[in-house]
Give the backbone structure.
Amino acid sequence: MRFEDLNIVAPILKALKEEKYEEPTSIQQKAIPLVLNRNDVLGSAQTGTGKTAAFAIPILQHLFTDRRENNNSRQIHALILTPTRELAIQIGESFTTYGKYTGNKNTVIFGGVSQGAQINALRKGVEVLVATPGRLLDLMDQGHINLKDIKYFVLDEADRMLDMGFIHDIRKIIAKLPVKRQSLFFSATMPKNIVELSRKILKNPEKVEVSPVSSTAETIQQYLYYTNRSTKNDLLFHILQDQKLDQVLVFAKTKHGADKIVRNLKKKKIHSAAIHGDKAQNQRQKALTQFKDGEIRVLVATDIAARGIDIDKLKYVINYDIPNVAETYVHRIGRSGRAGEEGTAISICEPEENAFIKDIEKLINQKIQLVGENPFPQTDKPMTDSEKKEWEKEKKQRKKEFFAARDKKQNRPHSSKNRGKRR
Ligand code: AMP
């Protein structure tokens, strides 16, 4: 099938051609005709399947044809709600790209940066608003945004939205939307609470589904190293000796962990940067751009920061930490091998994470291939529960001692409030 077969208007076809999109992906083939037909859609698809274009293209087409009848392009007619800033920026870029020749105006709003520029953009008038829930509500409360003219509403990555605790925000936002509208709802997984939420938003939806979460992994080559916690860094460095791994996205469990990995890689002269929630928005954007431009070889990210990051032609993902939720593993490795490209995912597992690998293998219904040549094999045993307790106690004690010693050195009273404060 070609995009021409989907009744897409010429200005959008021209933009797609320039993007070198040859044929619509499966979700696009299914969803575009339904959205053009003004159906509500319940889409089960994850990032990497081309779902952004699956909603952006038909919405742009509606706006383009609506505008011919009613010349007002300065009101917000489409709202795309998405969980993270990175995803919001990428969706905004997609609207700009596909809508290059339709005269569409969009803007993106998200938290963590000052409101000024976003308010200015809104004042000039936009047709498409891409937003994260918190900032949208803030600007609505301050009277900068009114949703009364919304005709098209997209809730993107609904499962992540709920995971991130946005349910109340979403309810508040939906309550302000006009009843007469077209709604599209996308989620990678469809547990009960998501289906319930979709019922509140959609009217007689058509369902479309691509690659259920457990089968996406089949297209990605997956390898596994068992090692000890103390040798993870050495093993990562050993893996990166292979120059075939030209650009790698490394996943870390925590922000602190991500920074530590970058520090170690830098010591080994490997160009790298970390992105996570404690980094300022411009730092995150800079790291992402440098990675996309090939100036950085290794980008280390936490799950939330990496959500929705779209790096064309990324082939390698390394799980420095194994996620304790099996679905997260599938989301992570799905960052490689996007839009049908080949991908490779390498996981580094320490004893405490052995059980997570079992869960993952159960979900993906396959055994991850063990790498035979491993200079740092796992020798430690997972800690027993009582050892873990002991270890946690010890860690707490060491932390207490560290802060007490620091406070003493800086001549200030030791209190838990001072913890972590830098001067
Ligand atoms: P998404 O699932 O929306 O995050 O899209 C994943 C990637 O696929 C993005 O880099 C898109 O630019 C790309 N993409 C989307 N649709 C197509 C298509 N029909 N042909 C080639 N690439 C596409």
